[in-house]
Design goal:
The complex is a heterodimer of chains A (about 450) and B (about 325).
Chain A lengths: L5 H16 L2 H17 L6 H20 L3 H36 L18 H17 L8 H9 L12 H9 L6 H34 L6 H32 L17 H7 L2 H12 L9 H19 L3 H20 L8 H23 L3 H12 L12 H22 L6 H18 L13
Chain B lengths: L1 H20 L1 H14 L5 H4 L4 H4 L18 E10 L15 E8 L5 E3 L6 E9 L9 H7 E3 L23 H10 L5 H15 L6 E3 L6 E3 L17 H20 L4 E7 L2 H5 L9 H6 L7 E2 L3 H6 L14 H16 L1
Parallel strand pairs in B: 1-2, 1-4, 3-5, 4-8, 8-9
Antiparallel strand pairs in B: 6-7
The chains are: A mainly alpha (about 450), B alpha/beta (about 325).
């Protein structure tokens, strides 16, 4: 079910009112049932995969908790292999097979294994990682195994963050699903404000900019370097608004029910370095890799060569997490190389002049924007041709599918976005007049200027 | 008390949701609203293109009734047609008819038994934008199967069970149930007007004519769609269509029809805004194709030359006057 649909509005109105009407002891049943339904709207049968993962991890957690020594590790490994197995089968099997086939072709050997043609379960990487964080935390002793199967299932399936995060940790979410939550006007107001802001980012900004960026990326050979630049810059903003818009709606929806999900974005395009960018972009995934991969490998408190290796591994895994394509790996590699460079040659200052801060913000924006070219392109050839287009002036006519007013409007929207993002999150919802003015303005803007083409969120594919 | 209100509200949401999942209910509800409550929904109230874009100033409610004749005769007229003729013609609009049998492309398997004691004329009509129908002879034969050959019963393809829980049309159904009312129209029009005035932005399926008097289906104006009046047509495609319609003519003539005609209704843009890009002249190419044995009832030149307004501003179809010109052409052909 898409957040930016009428279906979700009616669905959510039902869930929220029923949630507060039901006694506490039945709320988990309601949330679990509606979460299953929410997921089944995409491909009903795939719920079985989730049930499988849930059962395996549920029992694995008890086995890990009771075992000691090598057995503990073995049970954790079994749980991780099952989770990753599903991920590999659906997401990476064909990619590996393609590469094996290419390799074997060099020796005139036919690849005997068949390719699989199935639809990728939506948000698979998100809920698999969330499930893995549970068994890892139980293994580390930070989390007791959850006895209530229904509550554990809800931890994996909780509908606001099921298909595109934030990837939660059991210590944060599990107890909230059991806690007795009472109605709070403040939570409800904060939640609705975040939902409205998320809709604004998705429907008004992301899906509008998508019309320019989609044209640039899908028909890149027809684009002049100026229109290509515009498409690439718009994609940078689009992906942020699309993904952070989803996170805001997810966090807001949970907040209305009194459940706090972790923050996923903190104005990343105002970062002063790429290192800072990764503290603010997709925080739930970057902290996942930090906690479960980077720190166990030694983190930054190791020799220089080992540090570089650790960063490379973490980013390449992050690239692979997004999908089985070389372009994702190159995107990750670009970030890794810049991060290593910054680690050795760049010192973050406490105080900045406005001019130097602006220059640094521009550097981060253009570095990430150029990396997004690889992220968005379907093949390396396409990405390289786009980079070439961006590098050289050409004589093709500029073609942008917006009129001048709409282009100016887009830049006004971007300015509003950068200027108001922090203010929305810090907004004092207790001031009723201001609150209703802001929320109703957002709703009216979403209605009048929103683009409603039921365009899926970009991160659903991961 | 608050809990009671919450239960009532959640029950109302659930009811709306469940009913919007249910296709038979939605069909009944659409009929009930239109015919019993007399509260037509957007598509039924104005033209099909207006109901997509809600641009104010593009509502055309003028209605010109067709001429009627008392004169009957010995001719049975069969018409295989698309939405241009759906529900718009009757027996007495044509001169000298014994009976009129109309079959829509959307109807499956009508068993036709031409009465050999009468003169049997078949007209296969379609709009310029859907001339692909002429290339699909299997479909043309299947829609009007002939008496000599029993129609092969098709397996009933019921609605998948999952549709009752996960209906893919639920968003359209909810919009219809919640927002498709007369009192929302000014709001929808305001939104459409703001977006059009500021950004020239309208839904992708609709285009506005150069003189801003007509709405068109975008697939007829955007050159990369085959249905477009500005899409390049190659000679090979003309030859394929011609060969196929020759084959259809021969087949129906062998099976009891005295005359078989084809008729292409020009896209509105081909007539009222042909100069917006380079018009492809597909209709003329088809009607004058080399090796053509089938006959056309052509209205292209009549439409192009007339000073009358023959298409609706708010719809992808003609108005009563356009239809009358076509009926006149058919009457002339029958009389010959």
């Amino acid at each position: 079910m898409l957040f930016n649909s009428l279906q979700f509005l009616v669905f959510f109105a039902f869930v929220l009112s029923m949630y507060y009407a039901l006694p506490h002891r039945f709320r988990w049943v309601l949330l679990l049932a509606v979460s299953c339904y929410f997921y089944m709207v995409f491909v009903p049968v795939y719920i079985l995969i989730l049930f499988g993962i849930i059962l395996i991890d549920y029992f694995a957690a008890f086995l890990i908790d009771r075992a000691s020594g090598k057995k503990r590790k073995l049970f954790l490994a079994l749980s991780l292999v099952s989770n990753l197995g599903v991920l590999v089968y659906f997401k990476y099997y064909n990619f590996f097979l393609e590469n094996i086939s290419l390799l074997l072709n060099n020796f005139d050997v036919q690849n005997p294994l068949p390719f699989i043609y199935v639809v990728l379960p939506i948000g698979l990487s998100f809920h698999t990682f969330q499930a893995m964080s549970y068994t890892i935390e139980v293994y580390r002793g930070n989390q007791k195994p959850e006895k209530h199967l229904g509550i554990y299932a809800l931890y994996v399936l909780f509908f606001p963050q099921l298909v595109a995060g934030p990837i939660e940790r059991p210590q944060n979410l599990l107890h909230q699903l059991k806690d007795k939550i009472t109605y709070s006007r403040s939570n409800l107001r904060k939640g609705f404000l975040l939902i409205a802001w998320g809709f604004f980012k998705k429907a008004v900004i992301a899906d509008r900019l998508a019309e320019v960026s989609d044209l640039s990326f899908n028909y890149w050979w027809t684009q002049n370097s100026a229109s290509m630049w515009l498409g690439v810059i718009f994609y940078s903003i689009q992906i942020y608004c699309d993904f952070s818009g989803y996170s805001d709606i997810a966090i807001g929806a949970a907040k209305t029910m009194g459940i706090n999900l972790m923050e996923n974005f903190r104005n990343p395009y105002l970062s002063l370095s790429l290192t800072d960018f990764w503290r603010r972009w997709h925080i739930s995934l970057s902290t996942w890799f930090k906690d479960y991969v980077y720190i166990p490998m030694g983190g930054s408190k190791v020799k220089k060569a080992k540090f570089c290796f650790n960063i490379l591994i973490v980013f390449l895994l992050s690239g692979l997490w997004h999908g089985a394509r070389y372009t994702f790996l190159v995107w990750a590699l670009i970030h890794a190389v810049i991060l290593i460079f910054e680690h050795f040659f760049y010192k973050e200052k406490q105080t900045q002049t406005i001019f130097s801060a602006a220059l640094k913000i521009l550097y981060v924006f253009f570095a990430t924007t150029l990396a997004w070219v690889f992220f968005r392109s379907q093949s390396m050839e396409q990405a390289i041709e786009i980079i070439q287009k961006l590098s050289f002036y050409d004589t093709l006519p500029v073609y942008v599918n917006f009129n001048l007013t709409e282009l100016i409007f887009c830049f006004i929207l971007i300015a509003i976005l950068l200027g108001s993002e922090g203010a929305v999150k810090m907004f004092n919802v207790e001031n009723s007049k201001k609150y209703y003015f802001v929320v109703s303005s957002l709703i009216i803007t979403c209605y009048i200027f929103g683009i409603y083409n039921y365009k899926q969120f970009i991160y659903f594919q991961f | 008390m608050r809990k009671v209100w919450l239960y009532l509200f959640s029950f109302a949401c659930l009811t709306v949701y469940i009913l919007s999942l249910n296709r038979p209910f939605m069909e009944w509800w659409a009929d009930f609203r239109t015919y019993k409550l007399n509260a037509a929904y957007a598509k039924a109230r104005y033209g099909d293109l207006y109901s997509i874009c809600f641009l104010p100033g593009y509502t055309d409610t003028t209605f010109t009734p067709l001429k009627k004749f008392d004169e009957t005769g010995n001719t049975d007229l069969y018409i295989l047609h698309d939405s241009y003729l759906e529900g718009k013609i009757e027996n007495n609009n044509f001169k000298g008819l014994n009976k009129l049998i109309t079959v829509n492309y959307n109807t499956d398997g009508v068993n036709i038994v031409p009465d050999r004691s009468k003169k049997n004329i078949l007209i296969i009509e379609c709009s310029e934008r859907s001339d692909w129908r002429f290339t699909d002879t299997t479909s043309i034969f299947a829609k009007m199967s002939l008496s000599y050959r029993n129609r092969i019963p098709q397996a009933y393809e019921g609605e998948p069970l999952t549709n009752y829980f996960f209906n893919p049309n639920i968003n359209q159904n909810l919009e219809f149930s919640l927002y498709d009312y007369e009192y929302f129209i000014p709001v929808k029009e305001l939104k459409a007007q703001i977006n059009y005035s500021l950004f020239r932005r309208i839904p992708k399926d609709v285009s506005v004519s150069t003189d801003e008097k007509y709405l068109f289906l975008s697939e007829t104006t955007v050159p990369w769609y085959e249905a477009s009046s500005f899409c390049t047509v190659n000679e090979q495609r003309i030859q394929i269509v011609t060969a196929l319609i020759n084959q259809v003519t021969a087949r129906y003539k062998r099976n009891g029809f005295d005359e078989v005609y084809f008729s292409l209704i020009p896209n509105p843009v081909s007539i009222v805004d042909a100069n917006r890009m380079t018009y492809n002249h597909k209709i003329e190419m088809l009607e004058k194709a080399h090796g053509l044995e089938a006959k056309y009832i052509s209205v292209y030149n009549t439409f192009r030359d007339t000073k009358e307004k023959i298409y609706r501003n708010d719809d992808s179809h003609w108005n009563g006057k356009g239809l009358q010109l076509w009926v006149d052409e058919v009457n002339r052909t029958i009389a010959e």
